[in-house]
Amino acid sequence: MAQHRVVLSPDRFFDPNPEQRDMARHLYGLVAHLPIVSPHGHVDPRMFADPDYRFGSPAELFIIPDHYVFRMLYSQGIPLEKLGIPRRDGGEVERDHRKIWQIFAEHFYLFRGTPTGIWLTQELHDVFGVDVPLNGETAQVIYDHIEAKLAQPEYRPRRLFERFNIEVLCTTDMATSTLEYHKAIRESGWSGRVLPTFRPDDVIHVNAPGWKENIHLLGELSGVDVHDYGSFVRALEVRREQFKALGARATDHATLTAYTERLSEQEADRIFRRALQGEATEEDAQRFAGHMIVESARMSIEDGLVMQWHVGAFRNHNRLIYERFGPDKGADIPVATEFTRSLRPLLNAFGNDPRLTLILFTLDESTYARELAPLAGHYPALRLGPPWWFHDSLNGMRRYFDRVMETAGLYNTVGFNDDTRAFPSIPARHDVWRRASANWLAGLVVRGIITVAEGEEMVVQMAYSLAKEAYRL
Amino acid sequence: MAQHRVVLSPDRFFDPNPEQRDMARHLYGLVAHLPIVSPHGHVDPRMFADPDYRFGSPAELFIIPDHYVFRMLYSQGIPLEKLGIPRRDGGEVERDHRKIWQIFAEHFYLFRGTPTGIWLTQELHDVFGVDVPLNGETAQVIYDHIEAKLAQPEYRPRRLFERFNIEVLCTTDMATSTLEYHKAIRESGWSGRVLPTFRPDDVIHVNAPGWKENIHLLGELSGVDVHDYGSFVRALEVRREQFKALGARATDHATLTAYTERLSEQEADRIFRRALQGEATEEDAQRFAGHMIVESARMSIEDGLVMQWHVGAFRNHNRLIYERFGPDKGADIPVATEFTRSLRPLLNAFGNDPRLTLILFTLDESTYARELAPLAGHYPALRLGPPWWFHDSLNGMRRYFDRVMETAGLYNTVGFNDDTRAFPSIPARHDVWRRASANWLAGLVVRGIITVAEGEEMVVQMAYSLAKEAYRL
Amino acid sequence: MAQHRVVLSPDRFFDPNPEQRDMARHLYGLVAHLPIVSPHGHVDPRMFADPDYRFGSPAELFIIPDHYVFRMLYSQGIPLEKLGIPRRDGGEVERDHRKIWQIFAEHFYLFRGTPTGIWLTQELHDVFGVDVPLNGETAQVIYDHIEAKLAQPEYRPRRLFERFNIEVLCTTDMATSTLEYHKAIRESGWSGRVLPTFRPDDVIHVNAPGWKENIHLLGELSGVDVHDYGSFVRALEVRREQFKALGARATDHATLTAYTERLSEQEADRIFRRALQGEATEEDAQRFAGHMIVESARMSIEDGLVMQWHVGAFRNHNRLIYERFGPDKGADIPVATEFTRSLRPLLNAFGNDPRLTLILFTLDESTYARELAPLAGHYPALRLGPPWWFHDSLNGMRRYFDRVMETAGLYNTVGFNDDTRAFPSIPARHDVWRRASANWLAGLVVRGIITVAEGEEMVVQMAYSLAKEAYRL
In chain B, how many domains are there? Predict the structure, then answer.
């Protein structure tokens, strides 16, 4: 390969002050090689079910499935069709993956200073041994290089899992998932620990497309005849047990707002029956979803599943893109979120119960210091998830440390989630967190706020043990 | 005492850059030993009324009355009963203060990197001479040590007041306070300057529990028969004069929102009469409170009392804790706050009058640069209070300096408030502010934004004179 | 001149870390002398129409027209009358400009650490050669000095335009502007490039004072008989062509909220007719304005004018000041702004069309990372304008870089706007941006996030080419 070599500085992302940089390097050194605990993400379990599973082309690995990548290209006027994103109507899209890769490489400069740019650079370098910068000139030779690597057995997902030193990886699975791949992983005898997570969004939002079909599926998979609210709850409880039997440690919930409400059994039943008859209103749907969050907390107290809640993404903002390409195409946009009043019904019901662990994620950073840190610094059941999605970045982490830690305290947070569907990017993502954590703690040490010994303990907790403990892994 | 010694770096909290650190040290040196002006806080005046007043046990001094401390322990699942917090129903709580102290010490690591941790460490070190870290092993020997100190005459409140070099300390006193301790302080001939502050929240919120009793008390204390809006206003005016006679310089107001409205005399009277008959609606209560804020500004213009307003705390968020333990138990949570539209009626009525000084406090930092700094940078009557409560921290101060000063200018701010009920923590709190101020100004100097001479003037203003002037002390 | 000399550090505003400072100096050196591209501002074109145009007194140049300056003096209790601000009723105001200047100089300390202080200091130093600090003692000698300079031909606007190395300057002109000065500039044969910008706020807000007169003017100037919605749209299209003929590259829109809605032709016509009859409701006005934003995007796609939109200023907050002195008197206050839901109708209509360039400006920084960066990082039509108004400051820029760039990417931003009516402050304003940009990029380089070569390319884009390309200049 030609061009100047990519060199990843061993001190990258650390403060340039020599005193802080030295301390950051020291602290980072304590965690750089710790196993990866990945308690929340979207990796497809299928890739571990079959020991011979192969990633596709470089474009299929890096571009086509990754909305972090193609949204940026799209924002600069490149049609998704040219990037090979499949259309719902089966319409023509680019099929020459070398051409797709060429466009990507020519526009790789768009990712300068972005977390996606950082992850991709590190992934190309560390996982694939690419040591020239990606651009229009190097595009094809890098394509060749990656293609050759992907053909090797060392690049099968299970081998990478081991090479990445992943101790445990949790996927996200709908309530209507058959969990077939998780079963296959278990039955295969492979030692890798890949666990499902129970996400009941598909059966909780009574006005979402396909809800009724999902309710039928839920009935089939649970073996419970779901015909009213009571049987719906029983079916959920059965499914949670089925997930637990395959190692699940947590549930996951996603909503636009943090609205919660505790309905009476009768009210919940009335809404559920209206929904079955296709007569639920928008208000019904919102109240039912708010109630089911509270009800899920009740179940968690009983069955011990940790509860995760991701709030505030307005999904499918771009109608044209949604209609042509479907969901998860880079058009989910955050909205301002209210927690203090919204969570009160939930927290008054179960927030004082230390058997519950509710981990909250927000896309509205203005709530960090104003609402979430004070709430987590009081309620025993509440913990704060790491900076999420757009905020999973160096600046996002810095803002999170600055605004959350003084009030919530480190011990009401839960370490890191990579939250990714891009499996080979996992080491890079955890590395950014570990470097950012080390640098933040180094800043506290050199300012006389914590001692070196405290920093040494805290960096291990941030990189490894807080996540493991919070998720009961 | 065993273990490694606690050393407080003389340069703590300063930037690690040598140039900025040197300048910060220089500027801090100019104010480190200035007298403390404490224009707003919640210290109980009782402790100064009796020259022989003694603090109780270490647990009674550090833990039981301080919701900053026990909320963090509670958030990690430690019941408040185990911390000796008294229950409303008189139910059993831990009475062995050594056990309470032991729990606190074992969990002191929870405060790493928090302002409470910083204050406690400095307070233990500087006020009580504790030079080993507080943890499970050192708990009892530190308890012994503090207990012995507290038995000494040097640890009576008046002696500490003098040792702390407090020039003036303002307390916060309800409109229905008899002010007996303030009278006793005056009559005792002691030279310490402890002044009351008039806080009429107990008579302004017509739907709050106990409002009617408070109105009766107000009538008794003012000697005005309060039977309608007109007599209510007269009673308030009398009480303000009574507070002034004991040295009061300011009033204080606390509300959930910044809503203001100017009612006609007739409307105000109608609401007041409905309230006396127990028939005021929620809307009545909100409108009346919004009106009384405007009316208080009118009174301030006439009698010269500076007006403080603390906006945005959702009180008693946790019903169970409120019912079992009462208010001020660490369960007050901020909410998003709107100022621009809400303050308009007030500011259009009195904001152009330079005789009024209205000092605003917010828990919603997103309003600093967006609303409060532009408002304070325009209206002659408006000043911004320092970062409040959860934001009274190193990062909170940094964010405040960054977001407020460029638009409002330093001279529309009022220096520091410690806002504490923990009397022995006052020097530590002011020290954090002085260090943070010096460090911020040093950053401006080394970036060529202000000159050294300007920094030298400004640091004294921030540490001392702005507060003194704004509160007319 | 006496007193100690003002020295502007060549490294001012850079981080004090030597490694970062050296890199910042290097990057700044690449752009310090590039021509100024000023694509949005409020300079009066009149000053370039007449080659002999002279600025008035120092007070007329620096104080009387600049609400950034007098609002701060007003906030400290100095009546606007004393600063010579003309009253609407023709009432008495200070006419002795030396007295006005004296007050300003005595209070110049109020601007310490503010962007206005930075610009004024640099402007006095670089443009007028003032090398002593401005204060009460130096006031009159500096006045003499500036007055003498202003009498020289070198201080005519055209000469300063050339000296400032301005490549292009865009003004802001209402839809009802005759554009006479722009025509005069063109006809004068002067080589300076001064272009109009089409701002139709005066004809779009149907309930604003004077709207009907403006509609008549619009009819006259366009030669279209405006009697219904269809003819209104035609008149706008004609005027846009007239602006384009004089070089306009863009339109500009200002609203309180980001509300958009697409009305049917019939609905729009019904509202327009009601408005002509003076019967439009507040709701009509809001819906019509929201519709006209969408319609303006449609026009931009057709005629190629770039669209600018400034959202979130509550105008004329202070009624007394507005009634006595009129608009633009330092009493415009930002409000919290919602973009995600509000922009959806507009973006779903035209956001996917790369022929449209819509540049958004906000006064609510909490929307940077939460809403605007994700939107701009997806929609091809959307770009983000630089930090605006109160946020056009060193900290404002830092916050913008930190919160926008990781998600939107640099290439969805558009460089700098000075947005000023204070013509001689333009070089200082661009210099602050260039220094802040260089320092930010230097921070990325020394942290190993971008390479030196990337930083060198990006600093030129930020200082010069992004603006030129986005505005098609």
Answer: 2
